[in-house]
Amino acid sequence: MSDSDTPPLGQRPKLGPIDGKPVTTHPDLSRLSPAQRGLRDALLREFKARKAKKFVEKQVHYINGNRQVAESIKILFDEHGQPPANAPIEDIIEERRQLEYQVRWFEAMLLELQTRLLRVREIEALALDVLERSERE
Amino acid sequence: MAAPLFLLAPPRSYTSLMNAMLGQHPQCFGLPELCLFNVERLVDLWVRSTDEMGSEAKTRHGLLRAVAEIYGGEQTMDSVRMANHWCAARQNLSTGQIYRELVDKIDPLIAVEKSPAYTVDIQRLLRIRETFPDARYLHLTRHPVGQCKSVMSLYDGTFALFVNSIDFLEDRAIVEPQFAWYDLNINILNFLDTIPAERQMRIRGEDVMNDPPKFLGMICRWLGIRDDADALDEMMHPERSPFACFGPLDALFGNDPNFLSGPTFRPHKVKVPSLDKPVPWREDGQSLKPEVVELAREFGY
């Protein structure tokens, strides 16, 4: 490239077919043909659908309590529903640790929610007080 | 006020690790991703600009954690609540004013920050220059193949899609992260053209990973701060940063989740891939674009 072809400082051209700011701040789609805009929309829709599907799958996994309980105590039973004669101690310890961790996590969540509830109740009571007083006046 | 240091790089370019390492230097303070210069006024961080893609709540986590840590000395749900109030009281100030207030508070330590989102738009970078005319910039590069593979492995390449890094084939559009690698680095280069040479440095992330003491020492000397063994040893422990872990429930992030779950630096040799082979994220056997190869060569790959 000769010197005359070199872009001036701070003005090197970009490569991507879509100019402008990211999608959250309105990209410039003017360089795209109508077909390309359609393809872009389809790509975004497909991406969002895949994301939503993964999210739902994950949530179902979390909320399916019975299955989770069954999974977590599986190691305690064999295929006949009897305790296995030789359950590896490592598995049992690992299971116990995981359950303890989950219990601690739920306790922390519960505590936080109770604290928030308490505060919301206080605010609610205060607001009702104010309302009652203003009605009386 | 000590001039801050900004790490400029597209995401997935070792920025989290480097930020935490530099931030552990006894004369520095490593911040989480504040994303402040993404917007003009603080309140805009709480305003959703469009419904086209994604959630923006996570962009506030870094700021909330930083305020909680700097003003409250801890990161708990209570101190994050305080940080929310701190922000609410300043909601109409410019993000530059907010940033200066934080940097003033940690003075004389040098603020070190990287928010890869700054590199998405040169206006964001210009806001940094306007706020801190004497700031210093470290341009951190990563090989395009390594960086793009890493982008594609995180949430199905959300970031590439977010910045419209899309290639058009005959019958479909595909996510093509090399456009983002190129365009974001071009944004950085265009911006750095406006900055005096002595206030900028370019370094390959792979080199730092392969020999941290040598390159961290080099950065220290450029910044004019200590480069003795104790300082370098401290920098080898990014996991000691108060931001190198998940935050409280209402401000969990503020950084790359992969870094937050494993912030320790493990010495390893980074292999530099070829620039000519087909790229692994495309099914049609295409290689890197000639412009990408040329820029990568300019960066020393």
Describe this structure in words.
Chain B: Pfam families: Sulfotransfer_3 (PF13469). Chain B: This is Sulfotransferase family protein. Chain A: Residues 1-37 are annotated as: Disordered. The complex is a heterodimer of chains A (137) and B (301). Helix content of chain A is 64%, strand content 3%. Chain A has 137 residues and is mostly helical. Among the domains of chain A are: 33-75; 86-136. In chain A, strands 1-2 form a two-stranded antiparallel sheet. In chain A, a hairpin with a 6-residue loop joins strand 1 and strand 2. In chain A, 4% of the residues are buried. The model of chain A has no long low-confidence stretch (mean pLDDT 80). With 301 residues, chain B is α/β, with parallel strands linked by helices. Chain B has a single domain (5-265, 295-299), classed as Rossmann fold (3-Layer(aba) Sandwich), CATH 3.40.50.300. In chain B, the strands form 2 sheets. In chain B, strands 2-3-1-4-7 form a 5-stranded parallel β-sheet, with helices on both faces. Chain B has a two-stranded antiparallel sheet with strand order 5-6. In chain B, a hairpin with a 4-residue loop joins strand 5 and strand 6 (173-175). Chain B starts with a strand and ends with a helix. The relative contact order of chain B is 0.19. Chains A and B meet through helix 1 of A and helix 7, strand 5, strand 6 and helix 8 of B.
